[in-house]
Amino acid sequence: MTSDTAAHNDSTPTVERFSPLHQAHVDAGAGFTDFAGWQMPVRYSSDLAEHHAVRTSAGIFDLSHMAEIVVTGPDAGAYLDYALAGKLSAIDLLQAKYSLILNRAGGIIDDIVVYRTTENEYLVIANAGNRFQAFEALAARAARFDVTVTDRSDDVALIAVQGPNSRAILEATAGLTVDGDLSALKYYRALGGTFQAGTVLIARTGYTGEDGFELYVDVPDAAALWDALRAAGASFGLVPAGLASRDTLRLEAGMPLYGHELSTSTYPAQAGLGRVVNLAKEVDFVGREASEEGPSAEARVLVGLASAGKRAGRADYLVYRSADATVADGVITSGALSPTLGHPIAMAYVAPGLARLGTEVFVDVRGTRIPATVTALPFYKRQK
Amino acid sequence: MAEHSELQYTAEHEWVQVDGDTATVGITAYAADKLGDVVFVELPAVGSDVAGGTVVGEIESTKSVGELFAPVTGTIAETNDAVVESPELVNSDPFGAGWLLKVTFTELPPLLSYAEYSALIGE
C-alpha cells in the first residue's frame, strides 16, 4: 500500500519547528504532520472521533503555529484601512473581523482575523504558512503611517476550544479569569483575562462551524493553560483534536483554507469573499483598483459540491460538465467524505456556467467520473 | 504499533499470511495508523486474476487515499465483505478482522521478514 500521506512524510523540512505544547501532544499520543515547517498534531487517536467530539461535546486544538502580528500607534486604524481589504478603523474595542491582505493585482496574500485590542492597537492573526509574506506586506505598507508593526508569533501561543460544551469548560478552568461574562460574549467578540499571573485574550471565534473560543496566551504560560483546560474539560467530553479533524470541520463549515481555496492569483469575488472587500470605504487601499475591476467574466468561481456514495473527490481532482467531456471545467480545492453528513463534500472552482445551485457536474475520481451536485455553502450549520 | 512476527510483509506496508497456496493480505498497523480513519475500501472482484505488484484496490481515509497492491500473482479467492461494510475494521484490527484479500497463487515472490519490515518502518 502506498499513500500520499506516506509520500508526504518522506519530505524533510529544512527547519522543523515545534509548538510550545509539543511535549503535551507527545504525552497524549499524538501523530504529527508537517504544517508550514511546524510539527503539529494531525490526530491523537482518531480523526473521526475528534471531529464528532467537536460537533457534540468539545475539542481542544493547538494552533500555536499561527502568526500573531501586532499593529500599534495613533494611526493603527487608518493604516489597516489602507493595508487591508476591510474597514478596521470601524470595529469596536475587542471586536474581531475577518479580513484579507490583497496584493496590487487584487489577489489574496493572506486571509486573516484582526482584533482591536486597545484604541490604538490591533492584533492580526495570519496563517502559519504566510507568516513572513503577511508580515512583509504589512511592514511595507506602514511607511506613511505612525504605526509600529511587530511580528510576535514566537511569543504567543494559541489554543482553541471548540464545540457546544466549550463555554462550560472555560468557566470551569482553574486559574482562568475572564474580564466579563462569557455567556454574554457574542461571536467575533473578545474579552481580556488572566491565567495564573499572565494575561490572555479570549475570543469567541473559530474554524469549525461550532460555538467556541480561541485563547491567545504568552508562550511561557501555554502548557499550563492547555493542561488546565483539559482538566476542566474531562467531565465535559473534551478531547484533544488534531489538524485532520480541523480540516474536515472547516470544510463542512464551508470555510476557505489558504493554499487550497485562496491564493495570490485568486480574487476575493471568485472565492465568495466579495463582501470582505470594502469598496465603500473612502480609502485607496492596496488592491482597490483591481478589486473594482474584478475578475473576468470567465473566471472560475468557488462552489460547494455534494455527491452520493463514499468515494470523495479530493484536492486537485478535475471537474467536468458531463460524463464524457474531454476538457475540464473546474478543479476541486478541498474534498472529503463528510464525517457529519456521511457523504462526500468538496469545494471546487468551476466555470461560471456551472456555478448555479443544483447544477450536476462530474468529478474524475482516479479515472471514474462521479456525479456531484452544486450545493450551497456551508454544508453544515449548527443548530442555535 | 507492534507488527506480527509470524507474518511476511511488503514494502507497500501490506502483510501476507501464507497457508498452502493461499495468501491472506491486509495492511499493517503502521500503514493504518499513517492513513488515519479508513472510511472506504474498494476491493477486486472474486475470481479476477491479479498480477503481483499491481494496484488492485483502494483504501481511503478522511485525509488520503492509499492504493492496495497485489503482493502475489494469482486469482482472488475471497475478499472481506465485513471490511467493505465497516472500513473502520482496518484501523481497529488490521491484522485480524481488517484483512482484505485472499489470493490463490502458484509461486510466492520474495517478501520481507518481520525483522526486515520492522527495520523498514524504523521500529
From TrEMBL, chain A:
Source superkingdom: Bacteria
Keyword Methyltransferase: yes
Amino acids binding substrate: E214
Keyword annotations from UniProtKB, A to Z: Aminotransferase, Methyltransferase, Transferase
GO biological process: glycine decarboxylation via glycine cleavage system; methylation
Protein name per the record: Aminomethyltransferase
Domain Aminomethyltransferase C-terminal stretches: 300-381
Primary enzyme class: transferase
InterPro entries xref list: GcvT (IPR006223), GcvT/YgfZ/DmdA (IPR028896), GcvT/YgfZ_C (IPR029043), GcvT_bac (IPR022903), GcvT_C (IPR013977), GCVT_N (IPR006222), TrmE/GcvT-like (IPR027266)
Binding partners and assembly: The glycine cleavage system is composed of four proteins: P, T, L and H.
Reactions accelerated catalytically: N(6)-[(R)-S(8)-aminomethyldihydrolipoyl]-L-lysyl-[protein] + (6S)-5,6,7,8-tetrahydrofolate = N(6)-[(R)-dihydrolipoyl]-L-lysyl-[protein] + (6R)-5,10-methylene-5,6,7,8-tetrahydrofolate + NH4(+)
One GO MF term attached to the UniProt entry: aminomethyltransferase activity
Described purpose of this protein according to its UniProt entry: The glycine cleavage system catalyzes the degradation of glycine.
GO CC terms of this entry: cytosol; glycine cleavage complex
Protein's organism: Cryobacterium cheniae
UniProt record similarity statement: Belongs to the GcvT family.
Transferase keyword on record: yes
The gene coding this protein: gcvT
UniProtKB/TrEMBL annotation, chain B:
UniProt GO cellular component terms: cytosol; glycine cleavage complex
GO biological process: glycine decarboxylation via glycine cleavage system; protein lipoylation
Pfam families registered for this protein in UniProt: GCV_H (PF01597)
Cited PROSITE patterns: BIOTINYL_LIPOYL, LIPOYL
UniProt cross-references to InterPro entries, sorted A to Z: 2-oxoA_DH_lipoyl-BS, Biotin_lipoyl, GCV_H, GCV_H/Fam206, GCV_H_sub, Single_hybrid_motif
Database matches in SUPFAM superfamilies: Single hybrid motif
Keywords from the UniProt entry: Lipoyl
Required co-factors: (R)-lipoate
Residue span, Lipoyl-binding domain: 22-104
Cofactor note (record): Binds 1 lipoyl cofactor covalently.
List of residues that carry N6-lipoyllysine: K63
Family membership: Belongs to the GcvH family.
NCBIfam families recorded: gcvH, PRK01202.1
PANTHER family hit by this protein: GLYCINE CLEAVAGE SYSTEM H PROTEIN, GLYCINE CLEAVAGE SYSTEM H PROTEIN-RELATED
Its job: The glycine cleavage system catalyzes the degradation of glycine. The H protein shuttles the methylamine group of glycine from the P protein to the T protein.
Record's subunit section: The glycine cleavage system is composed of four proteins: P, T, L and H.
The name this protein goes by in its record: Glycine cleavage system H protein
Source organism of the structure: Cryobacterium cheniae
